[in-house]
Amino acid sequence: MKLLYFAWVRQKAGVAEEDVTLPGDVRDVSGVISWLRTRGEGYEAAFCDLSVIRCAVDQEHGGFDTPVAGAAEIAFFPPVTGG
Amino acid sequence: MIRVQTEDFDIGAEVAALTAGRTDIGAIVTFSGLVRDANGGSVASMELEHYPGMTEKELARIEREANERWPLQASLVIHRVGKLLPGDNIVLVVAASAHRQAAFEAASFLMDYLKTRAPFWKREDTGGETRWVDARESDGVAAAKWKV
Fold first, then answer.
1. What top-level class would CATH report for the domain A2-77?
2. How far is A8 from chain B (nearest CA, A)?
3. Geometric angle at alpha carbon A48, from A83 and B55, rounded to 5°
4. Considering the domain B2-144, what is its CATH architecture?
5. Which of A43, A71, B62, B94 has the fewest beta carbons closer than 10 A?
6. How many CB atoms are closer than 10 A to CB A53?
7. Domain segments of chain A as ranges
8. What is the pLDDT of residues A33-75, one digit of tens each?
9. Are the Cβ atoms of B121 and A82 closer than 8 angstroms?
């Protein structure tokens, strides 16, 4: 599964994208975040305030309870600021 | 039609291309957004980051939604990415319809939804320091009134 990070989430995590194999007990986006936070200080810093974290599963806006089984790509980013 | 590009756009040329050879369009509303120096001279440049792939999908979805809600003859969304300077064009929305009301409303809807759904992020460079622009609550309120 591919994980992508954008804007300050990318900067704090210290990675733009990576291929990972999720632990078997991870079922939804919130599970992915909990797992990421165990992987180092950068992830911990990126995901310490979930009120400013948005996500997309397979390029569709999702929520923390969106299932991730079978997903090819999950992205994490701050609230969008285009336009 | 949607486009994500680093190049500038010419509003007149885009409108001319949209209306060429057509006589069914009675109203065109265009909105263009510019890079604004909100801090009075301190912003040297702005970097527009986006999520290639999802950006195009979201813009296409937003445009499709507008076309389902209003009888549009044509619509266009252009968003620039990469490095931009204060005063530069950043976004263009064009809505063409038989009558003005649909064109006004669709253009407004397209912008409100683009601002809250399309995966773009602005980073201001103040010459030595960079700062990610925070999302505005008022943009969420503006989008919510359309009740998608």
1. alpha beta
2. 7
3. 25
4. Alpha-Beta Complex (3.90)
5. A71
6. 17
7. 2-77
8. 999 999 999 999 999 999 999 999 999 999 999 999 999 999 9
9. yes
